[in-house]
Amino acid sequence: MRKRISLLAAGALVALGPATTPAHAADPVFTLAGPAGIGLRPHPGQSGEPQKTSVEFRIVNDSTKTFDRQSTFTIDLSGLKGVADVTLAKEKGADCKLTAAAVTCTRWALWTGDSTVVNLDLSAAKDSKVGATADLTVTGAAEGATFRSATTKVRVGGPDLVLERARLKAEQKPGDKQNLSIIFANEGTDPVNGVVLEIRTTHGIDLVEQYDNCSYSDDTGSGRPRSAGWTTVQCLLEGEYEPDALYGVDGPLTLKAAPHAFIDGLTYAVYAAGDQPKAAKNRVPAAGRTKLAAAKQAPKAAARSAQQAADLDPWDNIQEFDFATRNTADLVATGVSLKGKAGETVTADFGFRNDGPAWVAHLRSDKEVARTDIAIPAGAKVTKVPAGCTGVNADGTDRDQTLGAPRYFCSTGRVVGEKETFSYPFQLKIETVVADAKGSITVGEWTPEGTTGQRWDPNHANNKAAFVINAKETGPAPTPTPTPSATPTPTGSATPTASASPSASSTGTGVTPNGGLASTGSSAQAIALGAAVLLTAGGGLFLAFRRKAGGHA
Questions:
Q1: Which of 13, 313, 418, 430 has the most CB atoms within 10 Å of its CB?
Q2: Under a CB-based contact definition with an 8 Å cutoff, are residues 201 and 231 in contact?
Q3: At a CB cut-off of 8 Å and minimum separation 6, what does 544 contact?
């Protein structure tokens, strides 16, 4: 029997870290880290064999120097007797030895950043009881250094939220709507006190309803257009969610394809309250919206630990889905005309605009959406090149020197927003005056030789424009006057992007996009969308959703 629930008022939970340990002023201080807690499925597990749960301990060196002395790390296993069995994971991390009493690991140096100390696989011991707990504490020691320890609470049993995959249409048209049905179960041994529903959508998919029990945020950042991220919705569902029970969200959650929708993605997940990923900084609660009522639920008498246990299998808490919207995006190269005398240096902005109506994004694969191919006219030499552009030989092959190349390839990066303009500022020295010297600017899909028209671009004729220096005709200004645009901002991979200006009125239909969102990390950030990131390609996870308490509609 399905139990109906509603979206209740959202709340913020803050996890407090452990107090620091004073250290000698001259000694570097390193922090050990691990999960706060893990749950073990009771012996012998659902398949009849003990089910392993992995725990990773890490070391954080947040200084700017490598610590080049030997360090030793120890995990006391005495508390696990009768509770859990331990083995070293295949990818164990450092040089480690396992005995019945302890795990000992040696590192000969600690590089900057964080790295793995050891990975352990734990399973419930044969005679262990549900609710049995033990602490795993990792400590470190080295001459001339101080370590902050980390403790993970191990518990036999716990909740296990399992989310069913919704039935959604992958192929759609702009403006199409469909309901996102959220059905989940608790297949663990413990109740869950409060569940957070998280829904993440890319720029082309809108969630129509808003509730005052939810918060809404965009994954944006400095120098990054809004269209490059995901929108995150988190809703706190209050109440107790009992083991062996099935639940469904009692309220409409309507997904709508925006006018600019094209290649888009969705992830949705349920977490025990307090375990949900941290939302983006610009988190905004909805105001003045209708709160949905909830059906009453009879509390179940069950032993409960003072602290809610960790989910036994967090990987089945999340689902993902990919959409391919029938739409087009018209990329239009921008022509440039310059005048100058021999010895002069001139500035030119090369690029293109997207006349839409669709945005195009490869958020998971990180594949570039388009390439701009710039052929330099005779008599001119490039003296300054923007980030994201590479000099090549005339035939498109690689060359060692970027400056002075006869041809340049510039990448858009993974996102081209609807109604967005890309501009790449170059400086050129006119070494020799050549009347009506002609080059070109071409935009399209990457090929080894340059570019070719995209299959989703309905007009390949405007993919190429002229680049002329000292044209015979009168009228051109000494410097080009292309469509004004923001200067591309390099990403971490030196790929430029530019701020997009969405147009809600743009519509259109055309070919179905080839490809789609490749698989990556999820919003759980193991993704991490991701952490993390996600889990599988082409439509995400598919769970054989077995119910101990019967079927559902």
A1: 418
A2: yes
A3: none
Backbone angles phi, psi at 93, to 5 degrees: 105, -115
Assess whether the previous peptide bond of 357 is cis (omega < 30° from 0): yes
| Cα end-to-end distance, the chain, whole Å | 9
pLDDT at position 61 over 60:
yes
Q: Is the peptide bond before 386 cis (omega within 30 degrees of 0)?
A: no
Sheet arrangement for strand 84-93 = 84-93, 113-124, 53-61, 29-33, 146-148
* pLDDT tens sequence across 435-455: 999 999 999 999 988 999 999
Q: What is the pLDDT of residue 480?
A: 43
- Neighbouring C-beta atoms of residue 145, cutoff 10 Å: 18
Q: Is the pLDDT of residue 10 over 60?
A: no
Q: Which two tokens stand for residue 422?
A: 């890309």
DSSP 3-state of 391: strand
Cα diameter, the chain: 92
Q: What number of helices (H) and strands (E) belong to the chain?
A: 0, 40
Q: For the residues of 106-141, what is the DSSP string, one character each?
A: EES-B-SEEEEEEEEEEEE-TT--TT-EEEEEEEEE
Concatenating the DSSP letter of every residue in 333-353 gives EPPEEE---TT-EEEEEEEEE
The helix/strand/coil state of 317 is: helix
CA distances in angstroms from 30 to 34, 49, 292, listed in the order given: 14, 38, 48
In three-state secondary structure terms, 436 is: coil
Higher pLDDT, 274 or 378: 378
Q: Three-state DSSP class for 86?
A: strand
Quote the CA–CA distance of 103 and 93 in Å, as a whole number: 12
Are the C-beta atoms of residues 109 and 67 closer than 8 Å to each other?
A: yes
Selected residue with higher pLDDT from 509 and 466: 466
Residues 125-176: pLDDT tens digits? 998 999 999 999 999 999 999 999 999 999 999 899 999 999 999 999 999 9
Q: Which of 74, 83, 161, 160 is nearest to 122 (CA)?
A: 83
Identify whether the C-beta of residue 527 lies closer than 8 Å to the C-beta of residue 198. Answer: no
> Is residue 485 predicted with pLDDT exceeding 90?
no
Alpha carbon 20 to its chain's center: 31
For the chain, the residue count is 553
Structural element, H or E, at residue 357: strand 345-357
Structure tokens at 496: 């430029």
Label residues 51-82 b or e (16+ Cβ within 10 Å = b): bbbebbbbbbbeeeeebeeebebbbebeebee
Most confident of 81-95, 196-210, 289-303: 196-210
Average pLDDT over all residues of the chain: 78
CB proximity list for 16: less than 8 A, separation 6 or greater: none
CA gap 421, 485 in Å, rounded: 6
